């Protein structure tokens, strides 16, 4: 497993893609409301990226047909955008990978549609907290297991399930580079973190403590096994001498 360490210039290029992605998510936040469809959001994202001289890396990736992954409620990851209007109380996760002149940034974010139940609000809060707990561990000399352990502990404290098969990953010119970044782990184990590594940290949690999921026949859509709500928060980060730098903030 050869891990690519990025130069200062290469991290700058990934950051440029990340800034476009962050701006796109800020715009999406304003769009999310009852009545809009995820297919409309998908079309908006593709148009937005084109206006920034960027492209959606997901579209065509291993045959994936859309510019975004749009996952609603018990679809916890890799959902297909569709024509069904979002309803008040839904959770929708929009996951986007931006390609800017061959360099990639990846960020998924969960949004509440209108007022949420207390249970759904708590799921979003805990999952987002776990993201930053994981990022806080991403210092040179630490290990991948330290990131995963911090994420796992936040889920266990809250009685919420970690979707173990879905993991973060290295990123740069390719969408998935080594190493994998699981959302569980043992401190001081796994790949040692080094300056120049660029990775995604992306906890995916489900209400209920099992984290069990299944893949639909399309080979992409991941649903919770018991129909529980899921959430995902993801940033692309660079590990530098002074610690983690979020490139998609």
What do you see in this structure?
- It holds the Pfam family Peptidase_M24.
- The chain has 249 residues and is of the alpha+beta class.
- It has one domain: Creatinase/methionine aminopeptidase superfamily (Creatine Amidinohydrolase, Alpha-Beta Complex), CATH 3.90.230.
- The protein has four helices and 15 strands.
- Strand 14 and strand 15 form a beta hairpin.
- The longest helix has 24 residues.
* Largest sheet features: 4 strands, antiparallel
What is the global morphology?
A: globular
Helix content: 25-40%
State the helix count: 4
List the uncertain runs: none
SSE order in H/E notation? HHEEEEEHHEEEEEEEEEE
CATH class group: Alpha Beta
The assembly state of the depicted protein chains is single chain
User: How many domains comprise the coordinates?
Assistant: 1
- The CATH architecture assignment turns out to be Alpha-Beta Complex
Name the CATH superfamily assignment. Creatinase/methionine aminopeptidase superfamily
Instruction: Please tell me how large the radius of gyration is.
Output: 17 Å
Average pLDDT figure: 97
C-alpha termini separation: 29 Å
CATH topology: Creatine Amidinohydrolase
Number of strands: 15
The proportion of strand residues reads 25-35%
Could you say which structural class the secondary elements and strand pairing correspond to?
A: alpha+beta
């Amino acid at each position: 497993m050869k891990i690519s360490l990025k130069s200062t210039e290469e991290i700058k290029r990934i950051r440029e893609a990340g800034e476009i992605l962050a701006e796109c998510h800020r715009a999406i936040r304003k769009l999310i409301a009852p009545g809009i469809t995820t297919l409309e959001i998908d079309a908006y994202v593709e148009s937005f990226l084109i206006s920034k001289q960027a492209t959606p890396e997901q579209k065509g990736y291993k045959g994936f047909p859309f510019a975004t992954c749009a996952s609603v409620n018990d679809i916890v990851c890799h959902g297909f955008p569709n024509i069904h209007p979002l309803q008040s109380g839904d959770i929708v996760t929009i996951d986007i990978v931006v390609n800017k002149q061959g360099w990639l940034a990846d960020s998924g974010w969960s949004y509440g549609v209108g007022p949420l139940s207390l249970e759904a609000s708590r799921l979003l809060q805990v999952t987002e907290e776990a993201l930053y707990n994981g990022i806080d561990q991403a210092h040179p000399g630490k290990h991948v297991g330290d990131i995963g352990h911090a994420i796992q502990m936040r889920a266990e404290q809250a009685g919420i399930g970690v979707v173990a098969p879905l993991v973060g990953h290295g990123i740069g010119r390719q969408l998935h580079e080594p190493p994998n970044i699981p959302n569980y782990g043992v401190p001081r184990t796994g790949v040692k973190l080094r300056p120049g590594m660029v990775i995604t940290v992306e906890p995916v949690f489900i209400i209920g403590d099992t984290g069990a999921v299944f893949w639909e026949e399309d080979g992409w859509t991941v649903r919770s096994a018991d129909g529980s709500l899921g959430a995902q928060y993801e940033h692309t980060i660079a590990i530098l001498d002074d610690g983690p730098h979020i490139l998609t903030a």
